[in-house]
Amino acid sequence: MTVWQDAGLVLIGLGGGLAVGSGFVAFIIVLDIIPRLTQLTHSQRYIHCYEWALVCGALWFTVADFFSLSIDLPVAMTAVVGLLAGIFVGTLAAGLTEVLNVFPILAKRLQVDQSILAFLMAMVFGKTLGSLLQWILHL
User: Fold this and answer.
1) Are 51 and 32 in contact (CB under 8 A)?
2) Please, is 2 exposed, middle or buried when counting C-beta atoms within 10 Å of its C-beta (0-12, 13-18, 19+)?
3) Mean pLDDT of 60-74
4) Smallest Cα–Cα separation from 89: which of 138, 128, 41, 39?
5) pLDDT at residue 80, rounded to an integer
6) What is the mean pLDDT of the chain?
7) Residue 94 and residue 83: Cα distance in Å, rounded?
């Protein structure tokens, strides 16, 4: 590769990272995740700790991914970390669908108003099965 190709790849990578990071921050801000979390846990005085935890976690995992850092943990600890990460991602997805009223709109468009519970359960089981297959088979 030439220097110009390397520079182009760096610019594309930085641009993509900025776009994804900006989208994530906008998503967190629009849904008021941190203020809602502090309200639910009655810990409003620690709101800055929550914010810094989110920022530091994002920075740490960006650096860890960039430099291919890894930590060898026991299988049980890895399962706990994976479970917590899955809960975090699922909560964010649920918050987005709640804000956008995705399911009622989708049910009306697919004309499945009466069977929306079955529709939701199919989505949940499909996502769970897909995640388990990916985790177990390393696809």
Assistant:
1) no
2) exposed
3) 87
4) 128
5) 92
6) 81
7) 16
d(CA 79, CA 103): 30
Among candidates 57, 7, 62, which has minimal Cα distance to 28? 57
Average pLDDT over every residue of 41-47: 87
How high is the pLDDT of residue 100?
61
Check whether 43 has a pLDDT greater than 70: yes
- Cα(35)–Cα(79) distance, integer angstroms: 29
Instruction: Provide DSSP, 56-97.
Output: HHHHHHHHHHHTT------HHHHHHHHHHHHHHHHHHHHHHH
Question: Could you tell me how many residues make up the chain?
Answer: 139
Residue located via tokens 């930590």 = 71
Q: How far is 1 from 7, CA to CA, in rounded Å?
A: 10
